[in-house]
Amino acid sequence: MTPKPKITKKPKKSINVGIIGLGAYLPSKVMTNLDLEKLVDTSDEWIRTRTGISERRIACKEEMTSDLAANAARMAIKNAKLEPADIDLIILATITPDMLFPATSCFVQAKLGAVNAACFDINAACSGFIHELTIAQQFIESGMYKNILVIGAELLSRFVDWKDRSTCVLFGDGAGAAVIAPVKRGGLLSSYIGADGTKSRLLMFPAGGSVTPASHETVTQGLHFLKMEGNEVFKNAVRVMTNASAQALSRAGLTTEDIDCVIPHQANIRIIEAVIQRVGIPAEKVFVNVEKYGNMSAASAIVALFEAVKEGRVKKGDKVLMVAFGSGFVWGSCVIEW
Ligand SMILES: CC(C)(COP(=O)(O)OP(=O)(O)OC[C@H]1O[C@@H](n2cnc3c(N)ncnc32)[C@H](O)[C@@H]1OP(=O)(O)O)[C@@H](O)C(=O)NCCC(=O)NCCS
Questions:
Q1: Which atom of ligand 1 is nearest to the CA of 327?
Q2: How far apart are CA 191 and CA 195, in angstroms?
């Protein structure tokens, strides 16, 4: 009998994976709380005190999710000092795609001319960016890809019911993008993602899928619009984001004291305050821009990171804790050394 060849495991070479370019695109049209007062029975005071939101961006009629995504992506690729042809893979996170299929990332690939990129979309709602980072890390560590473009793009203004004051005041349009690649030092120190599908009906688009295909009736009943049990989502968001923050810290072998900046999902200032208080992080370390854009789901975290870096809130060598929660429920957290 021929002896079996001895399999020697090659020691895994650790590759640092990080962000080498960031971009953002926010449509120019601003809708303020005062504008909303003219549409639904609400007030600037109610929206600001319950959510922290003062205004949000609304895409123009000609803009599609893939346009917002492509604009943010061009900036990220330029900031990474790359060309579109250098991108090996595009991952786009969205709950508001151009169409159910094909993948919106394919439209983006064509708009960018990223001819060498494979493409797919993910639906991880507001946690899209953390999920994308986690996926991109695997592709880079395995050696399969080098430059991965991740995008979060949402056009929620086309999917909310402008007659439902309990949801329409919360959301906005925008896109953020990041190029992920091997880096010499720092980068992603830890990441954690999770889900609880038993709570999937608390935040959803009920119609338009295989469960309830679009029909005259679904449209008349407004079932193609976003529906949410706000109170339940709120409580779960606080609990889960608190736990997820602890997970990312322990996986990185760090404590709250090591963290220079926290970038939480930007849904509601009250959720953010409740989470950071439970995690034990001082408010001055937390980056917040929800007042300007509302909740942009998958786009929120990347746009917040982009602005935090631009404003000097995140500097070279800083450790950044990111945490997000969204429909599914799904959640994610990570620590990045900038
Ligand atoms: C939606 C949300 C802001 C509502 O705040 P809340 O303090 O829970 O408010 P409630 O739902 O208890 O509603 C309180 C009252 O305000 C009213 N209300 C709801 N929206 C309103 C609005 N835009 N303007 C004025 N009043 C409003 C409700 O009708 C209710 O009136 P009632 O007491 O007469 O029934 C809050 O639940 C929330 O932020 N949830 C999480 C949303 C989220 O982050 N989703 C995405 C997760 S990724």
A1: 48
A2: 14
DSSP state of 150: E
CA separation for the pair 124, 331 (Å, rounded): 8
pLDDT tens sequence across 99-111: 999 999 999 999 9
- For the segment 139-147, the average pLDDT, to the nearest whole number, is 97
Domain span holding position 332: 189-337
**Which of 161, 166, 239 to mutate for ligand 1's pocket (most ligand atoms within 8 Å of CB)?**
166
Task: Reduce the secondary structure of 301-326 to three states and give it as a string.
Answer: HHHHHHHHHHCCCCCCCCEEEEEEEE
User: What tokens were used for 15?
Assistant: 């590759």
> How many structural domains does the chain have?
2
Angle of CA points 94, 79, 182, to nearest 5°: 80
CATH classification at residue 138: 3.40.47.10
Nearest to 129 by CA among 307, 299, 290, 266: 299
Both 207 and 316 in one domain: the answer is yes
Q: Indicate whether 67 and 168 sit together in one domain.
A: yes
Mean pLDDT throughout 73-100? 98
Instruction: Please indicate, yes or no, whether residues 116 and 219 belong to a single structural domain of this protein.
Output: no
